[in-house]
Amino acid sequence: xxxxxxxxxxxxxxxxxxxxxxxxxxxxxxxxxxxxxxxxxxxxxxxxxxxxxxxxxxxxxxxxxxxxxxxxxxxxxxxxxxxxxxxxxxxxxxxxxxxxxxxxxxxxxxxxxxxxxxxxxxxxxxxxxxxxxxxxxxxxxxxxxxxxxxxxxxxxxxxxxxxxxxxxxxxxxxxxxxxxxxxxxxxxxxxxxxxxxxxxxxxxxxxxxxxxxxxxxxxxxxxxxxxxxxxxxxxxxxxxxxxxxxxxxxxxxxxxxxxxxxxxxxxxxxxxxxxxxxxxxxxxxxxxxxxxxxxxxxxxxxxxxxxxxxxxxxxxxxxxxxxxxxxxxxxxxxxxxxxxxxxxxxxxxxxxxxxxxxxxxxxxxxxxxxxxxxxxxxxxxxxxxxxxxxxxxxxxxxxxxxxxxxxxxx
Length: 410
Fold this sequence. Notes:
Blueprint (H helix, E strand, L loop, with lengths): L2 H9 L24 H27 L8 E5 L4 H12 L3 E7 L6 E7 L5 E7 L2 E3 L4 H29 L5 E6 L4 H8 L4 E4 L9 H19 L6 E7 L23 H6 L3 H19 L4 E6 L1 E3 L3 H4 L1 H7 L3 H6 L4 E4 H13 L5 E5 L2 E2 L3 H10 L25 H8 L4
Parallel strand pairs: 1-2, 1-7, 2-6, 7-8, 8-9, 9-12, 10-11
Antiparallel strand pairs: 3-4, 4-5, 11-13
Helix pairs in contact: 1-13, 3-12, 5-6, 6-8
């Protein structure tokens, strides 16, 4: 095997390895240590503030000060991509309903861990408070996992709520994508939905099913909302590039789909989730005659991405060495991706899928640069090992994206 290929295999996770995931206790909300009255009062306060803000916006419209741009919804605004789409829309003068997904977030959870000695304990966490402190060693490990993840989630949600007090055109909603009615509430008065679903906990076979169900609920809610004119659905290039013998294909474009059986065989749960959820969204959108376009992005890079989006980044990179060798490892800047989302909405001629990437990584030098941008998620090899010069053939095509950027979408 050539030197450059060896470097890539050192940098990125192998194809068949599967990450470790946390399992959330289903009955956590009924635990005695949660103060239900505090939660209810906080929820009522948010609802009052939200209604007040909506009245202010309606008053502005009645006084003829309605902004030129319509009201749109971003769900989930607390994902890395969703947050940057939200920022892009606000900077372009849109009124935005920022739907923050509460399903699957670690604000309250129960971890169940089993040791090799068959000793079992349960740790319950709510806003940093721990209960049932048997087996100290196991609890200390759980605390490290919890705070590493929850700090990032809390930071972005807090930032969005802080923005609500500053941005006149921003209203924040708490949404559970498995709760159809909570989605309807966030969509009221909106003419478009920017769908940005990602599991901040990582992906396994169970998460695949949850994301598909979430996508179905979102599209169905849009179909039942009279004001919705278009869905911009954020998917991934991994929904198109995984199948046997892809190296024999000359072009991989918007007509391509990943093979479900291949993804299951190789435990490519992120790719499988994106493939099945996008296919389900397309099937339902066509059945309900909802206008939808999808943006299939490459690996998303941007400010502090290694810190703020670690799970999704590593899930995307599962099998990165094979993507590299097959000429389908692509990257995209998050600001560019947000801009493409807005263009896809504003251009009335957009249709179908759009492959969205800035660059295909197909040389060793580009691979090392990518790893450097993802530090400390990716460990760099010694410099003297980076001596390869092979260039792999590029197979991804994004002619549709180029037309969209030029102003001729389809």
